[in-house]
Amino acid sequence: MIIAIGQMSDLSFVDDGGPRLDERGLLVFDADRQATTSPDVFASGEVVTGPGAAVNAIASGKRAAVAIARYLGVAAAELPDPDPIGELPKRLREGYVKPAPRRRMPARDSKERIEDFQEVELGFAEVDARCEASRCLLCGSGARYSQLKCVSCLTCVRVCPYGAPWADKDGLGGIDPAACQACGICYTQCPAKAIDLEVRSEEQVLAEIEEKLAGGGELEIGCWYPQSRVAPDAAAVLLPCTARVSVLMLLRALEAGAEKVYVAVCSDDDDGHFKHGHRQTQAAVAEARAALEDIEMDPDAIELVVVGEKKCLQGKGAPEK
Amino acid sequence: MIVAKPKPFRKIKQFTDPYQNILVVGCNTCVAVCLTGGEKEAEQLAAKIRLHRRREGLGGTVDTVTVLRQCEHEYIEEIKDEVEGRDLILSTACSIGPQALAERYQDVRVVPGMNTKMLGMVKEHHTWSEYCVACGDCVLHKTGGLCPIARCAKELLNGPCGGSQGGRCEISPEVECIWQSIHDRLKRLGMENDLKKILGPRNWSWSKHGGPRTFHKEGFKP
Ligand code: SF4
Ligand code: SF4
To answer: β-strand B88-91 against B109-112: which pairing, if any?
Structure first.
């Protein structure tokens, strides 16, 4: 196969004294050290490999960052060599995960475009772009399981809508990363904090909540798929699913000075982006509101609001168990 | 498994309001499995107490630490640095936890965050039922493997009583009549004649009625 996408790196700024280029116009490169021929210039991505997958370029960027840190004498941990994530299990392909058809990219008419060198693809309208983005399976960004902290309670096995967690008779368990759809329900329910989420971990979200509320005010914690916000003036913390909102997050937001916390869900019929996501969010909000009643605070300081718009939603719903 | 339920918050605040330096200690065994007192719940409770104290202007510090099992000396020894300087420990374990902590940390006041409810098992996720009362003299071999001491409201050994209706107990239609189930099961096993045998008197002194119980593993001197 000859890749001829008509694009290349523009390295014309590299002058004679700088890093050497090879005959293909790419930087001469030592992959072990992410190094070019100039001792203080590092490189990554398509300037060294030529056209390839964006994900490889991102990984190589991360490796370059580690190489640069070490070159500067800063300690940097070796990047883990991630286990490849397997194929989406058959039972999920055949029914559990709803197929989300692709949106067509609007393009100029071929008759028109043979006349010039203007861009062919016109780009998505926002709603379509969000819709396309929501087709992402979030592979590898979901549950991160710790056998050490797990108390083998089976909660995750019982609550996951996608059947990703497992446990054997000895209580040894795990979560199949290929089946995990990253909804976060197991994280919010695990009583021993043995599950966190790879992308938007609890620590990150709590830090973000605290940072955004530094001056008090209102907070909206919402799902990152719908387009509209329920409280446009409030600080926003957006997650792949509000099923990831824990009681602790809600209480900590009030501790951090929030006058009001809106939890914005995309759907009130439990058929949002993730099956049972809404049910989980409702339970967490109800528990947090009950906690406020207990301490004689107005429970309306935490409010569940349904974003009335599901236009761009590509659900990952699972059938009832 | 031991099943315990959090005490109402009005109790918790009564216990904690007068103190300034509070440690909430979670337990990651039974009460984690019954979703009431593990690490997650302990952290939530601490956040709730802090919010309450801020509203009431009580100040002070409320932190948390969780051990695998509060009923083990070695595990609660591990948290001595966290306990240092506290004037109150609030335990979210079953009632063994606060006692173990009180034994080890003699100079710190220890209060229970939970009411210990029963020895039970999960019926469906989020619901637990009582299966055993630790009576000390198990009768399951005589009753088809179903416990009339824990699961019959009257602790009958010759049930069912006249209040059994359609397999339900007279105290509530929600409650299974365990004696009906015992009869059904023995019949299925072709053992219904066993029910005609006189069970003989029970030795209740092996139960709590004989005073606090201690148990030594055979062969090892206490
Ligand atoms: S919910 Fe948490 S503690 Fe329970 S089995 Fe799953 S990972 Fe382990
Ligand atoms: S509950 Fe959600 S986050 Fe957890 S394993 Fe299942 S799909 Fe993944």
So the answer is: parallel
From A85, A91, A83, select the one nearest A162 (Cα to Cα): A91
Q: What is the pLDDT of residues A148-184, one digit of tens each?
A: 999 999 999 999 988 999 999 998 999 999 899 899 9
Two tokens, residue A236: 């926003």
CB-based contact A307:A264 (threshold 8 Å): yes
Asked whether B61 and B85 are in contact (CB, 8 A), the reply is: no
In chain A the beta strands, taken as DSSP E runs, fall at 143-145, 165-167, 173-175, 195-197, 218-223, 235-239, 260-265, 302-306
Residue contact A153–B52, C-beta within 8 A: no
For chain A, say whether B43 makes contact (Cβ under 8 Å).
yes
**Ligand 1 touching residue A144 (CB < 6 A):** no
Q: How would residue B92 be classed by pLDDT, with cut points 50, 70 and 90?
A: very high
- Which segments of chain B belong to CATH 3.40.50.11860? 2-118
Q: Copy the structure tokens of residue B25.
A: 């200690």
What pTM, to 2 d.p., does this model score? 0.85
pLDDT of residue A277: 85
Q: What distance in Å separates the CA atoms of residue B76 and residue B89, rounded to the nearest whole number? A: 12
Atom of ligand 1 nearest to the CA of A151: 3
CA A176: distance to chain centroid?
17
Report yes or no for ipTM above 0.95: no
Is the CB of A175 within 6 Å of ligand 1? no
H helices present in A10-136, as ranges: 46-49, 54-71, 90-91, 110-113, 126-133
Domains of chain A: 12-82 (3.50.50.60), 90-123 (no CATH), 143-197 (3.30.70.20), 202-314 (3.40.50)
Q: What is the CATH number of domain B2-118?
A: 3.40.50.11860
Asked if A158 lies within 8 A of B55 by C-beta distance, the reply is no
Q: Would the CB atoms of B51 and A155 count as touching at under 8 Å?
A: no
Instruction: State the closest ligand 1 atom to the C-alpha of B33, by its place in the atom list counted from 1.
Output: 4
CA angle B172, B176, B180 (to 5 degrees): 120
Distance of CA A189 to the CA centre of its chain: 20
Distance from CA of B37 to the nearest CA of A (A): 8
Cα–Cα distance for residue pair A196/A184, rounded to 1 Å = 8
Helix axes A247-255, A202-212, angle to 10 degrees: 30
The letter for the amino acid at B44 is Q
Q: Using a CB–CB cutoff of 8 Å, tell me whether A151 touches chain B.
A: yes
Query: Given the structure tokens 């209580």, which residue do they identify?
Result: A171
User: Which chain B residues are within 8 Å of A321, Cβ to Cβ?
Assistant: none
Rounded to the nearest angstrom, the distance between the alpha carbon of A191 and the centre of ligand 1 is 7
Closest chain A residue to B11, measured at CA: A294
Q: What is the pLDDT of residues A78-120, one digit of tens each?
A: 887 777 888 888 888 877 777 777 888 999 999 998 999 888 9
Q: Is A164 in the pocket of ligand 2 (CB under 6 A)?
A: yes
- Check pocket membership of A60 for ligand 2, CB cut-off 6 A: no
